[in-house]
What we know:
0% strand
Amino acid sequence: MKTIINAFLCSLLAFFVPIQGVLLLVGASILADTIMGLYVAKKSKEKITSQRLGWGVIGKMFAYELTILMIYAIEVILLEDITSMILDIHLIVTKVTALTLVSMEAFSIDESWRKINNNKGVGFYFSRLIKLGKTVKDAVPKRD
């Protein structure tokens, strides 16, 4: 019985190996959002409870990772032939789902950043960086 369970778990693990990078990326985005949330809470002197923090992060991690795993299984088992006829991108549905989840976390990070930064989000600093780049480009003499 133990051998059968081990064989099943190894097979399941091998099935999901192709998306390990996607799972790590989604997990890292959740971790980054959590760290940013803790930083904002500390700056604004909000009370942080370990119970709320722990279950919130664990619940989100579980839900997001399980979503990716289920979408991947559905895509490999049911949709791969259909999607490969339309687009020549391997695992497109899984990648778009992961991109959506990571984008949600990025927007949450930007929202947290705005709370402590006088409503200046990542876009504000990105546009300033672009302007600085143009200024430096104009200041450098052109070569002939």
